[in-house]
Amino acid sequence: MSKGRLIVFSAPSGCGKGTMLAEILKDEGFYLSVSATTRLPREGETDGVNYYFLTKEEFEQKISENRFFEYACYCGNYYGTLLSEVDDKLEEGKNVILEIEVQGAMKIRQLRPDALFVFVIPPSVRELERRLRKRGTETDEVIAKRVAAAVEELKYAPKYDYIIVNDALEDAVSDFRAVIKAESLRTEYAAEILDEVINNA
Ligand code: 5GP
User: Fold this and answer.
1) 20 to 30 Å CA-CA from 159: which of 23, 108, 110, 201?
2) Which atom of ligand 1 is nearest to the CA of 107?
3) 23 forms bridges with which residues in the sheet?
4) Which of 116, 80, 70 is nearest to 96 (CA)?
5) Beta strand 77-82 pairing with 68-74
6) Residues near 180 by beta carbon (within 8 Å), at least 6 away in sequence
């Protein structure tokens, strides 16, 4: 069985990343890594499903035990990918998606240059703010913080391999599938089949 691909998927909050991922995960062969965080659960979020919700002390304990593949501080909370979420799943042949912000993504760029980096942007910052308000889960202060963070994050988009505009969900998901398809056809992944075809000529 061939190994899966590590996919770093970033988007400022309010870009519809969650809805996009829910669609993508309906396809076979993907695993969405469950991150750890110190932020409080939102309504409807479950520990171990959406995140591993940890206290600051628990998170820092795991940092000292080297249990993280990467971690970052975002809007005053820790977020991190646990090592246990990544390599086993890749070995199983799953494409592992890390839904992480840009600082973490840049660390993965160093650690795993073979990973695939996809950045989702909104059609405009105004639309992003509208979506955040519509979600109704955050206070005005948090929304303002997140919009400011989004503008900063957008500056990192050129460092990714692909940029997808999420205006209409269906189109954005179909663009993501097109990226995965094109990547699977890259020369480096075809070495085995190419050898076979040549050797049986
Ligand atoms: P939220 O609080 O909206 O769930 O997530 C806030 C930000 O943290 C999002 O940009 C999300 O991609 C990012 N994030 C979630 N998990 C991780 C992680 O494990 N590592 C890093 N670096 N960022 C993460």
Assistant:
1) 23
2) 22
3) none
4) 116
5) antiparallel
6) 7, 95
Q: Is 17 in the pocket of ligand 1 (CB under 6 A)?
A: no
Task: Give yes or no for a contact between 54 and 36, defined as CB atoms under 8 angstroms apart.
Answer: yes
Which residues lie closer than 8 Å to 72 by C-beta, 6 or more apart? 78, 79, 80, 100, 101, 103, 104, 107
Indicate whether residue 80 lines ligand 1 (CB < 6 A): yes
Report field, pTM of the whole predicted structure over 0.85: yes
Q: Which residues pair with 77 in a beta bridge?
A: 74
Distance CA 165, CA 183 (A): 19
pLDDT tens profile 17-63: 999 999 999 999 999 999 999 999 998 999 999 999 999 999 999 99
User: Which residue in this structure is represented by tokens 């973490």?
Assistant: 104
Show the tokens assigned to 11: 């988007």
DSSP-based three-state secondary structure for 8: strand
